[in-house]
Amino acid sequence: MGKNAELAGLFLAQARRLLRETYLPRIERCVKQLSEEQIWWRANRASNSVGNLLLHLEGNVRQWIISGLGRTPDRRERDKEFAELGPLPRSVLLGCLRKTVREACRLLAKLSSRDLTRTYSIQGFHVTGLQAIFHVTEHFSHHVGQIILATKMQCGKDLGFTHLPGERTRKSAARSLPPL
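Below the sequence we write its predicted structure tokens.
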């Protein structure tokens, strides 16, 4: 295996790990702590609800990874992600996001170093595969932070996501998530 292929493999594995093993479990933990009403709560008219953010993340991953890199038709209706006022059940929201992340991770596992350097047209932008994947993981992280903040604001408690390497608490000793 050449250095480019090895580096591509490491990058793609890390992108899959972040989406599937770090970010998605944090979202799931947050959403499970919120009532259906809290999922659709907005701090103000300029803010999005957790429900909107889940729809938005699903749409973004589908558009950039599955449609963009996978070269399948893009049917995203981005404005609807933010206009939705709910209530869509948590099971539907999480189920759609899980399915999309799984599908995206399967596609990422098949990409090559050549796919990472190829240029794609996604959402009107001309980007390399590397740029598209970096955008999606960064974008996902940004909105996971918003979901965590909204959950903390509504539940009024520490969610236990941030620990220094090697630090363990009684609650997290059995199962801790990697720090952001």
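Helices lie at 3-33, 36-39, 50-69, 78-83, 90-110, 113-117, 129-155.
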